Amino acid sequence: MKKTLNCNDVLENLSSYVDGDGTAEFREALEKHIAHCRRCRVIVDTTGQTLKIVTDVEPFDVPLSVSAKLYARLEMVLAEQ
Questions:
Q1: CA–CA separation, 69 and 75 (whole Å)
Q2: Per-residue pLDDT for 1 more than 90?
Q3: Which pLDDT does position 45 carry in this prediction?
Q4: First vs last Cα of the chain: how many Å apart?
Q5: What is the CA radius of gyration of the chain?
Q6: What is the C-alpha separation between 49 and 55, in angstroms, rounded?
Q7: pTM to 2 decimals?
Q8: In whole angstroms, how far apart are CA 21 and each of 12, 14, 41?
Q9: Is the domain defined by 7-80 classed in CATH 1.10.3470?
Q10: What is the pLDDT of residue 46?
Q11: Taking a C-beta distance cutoff of 8 angstroms, is the pair 61, 67 a contact?
């Protein structure tokens, strides 16, 4: 049974699609939807490009002041739980 996807279906399954998961039928339905829906196509393309940029970046050192603020915030959040 072929299912027609709507925009909510695309958003709910975006991670699976970008990760290359899902059945061939699902991937085909999503690709059919984004071929006709500019909004979803932009979201899928932007997500894919963002992940490529993030995964292609070499590791870098975080400035000590930023690291200290991050740890302080994490400790505060964890203490609230």
A1: 10
A2: no
A3: 95
A4: 45
A5: 19
A6: 10
A7: 0.65
A8: 13, 10, 18
A9: no
A10: 95
A11: no
Instruction: Give dist(CA 81, CA 75) in Å, integer.
Output: 10
pLDDT in tens, 24-74: 999 999 999 999 999 999 999 999 999 988 888 788 888 999 999 999 999
Query: What is the identity of the amino acid at 59?
Result: P
Name the one residue in this structure whose structure tokens are 């909510």.
8
DSSP 13-58: THHHHHTT-S-HHHHHHHHHHHHH-HHHHHHHHHHHHHHHHHHHSP
List the structure tokens of 69.
């603020």
Q: Could you give the CA distance from residue 13 to residue 40 in angstroms, rounded to a whole number?
A: 12
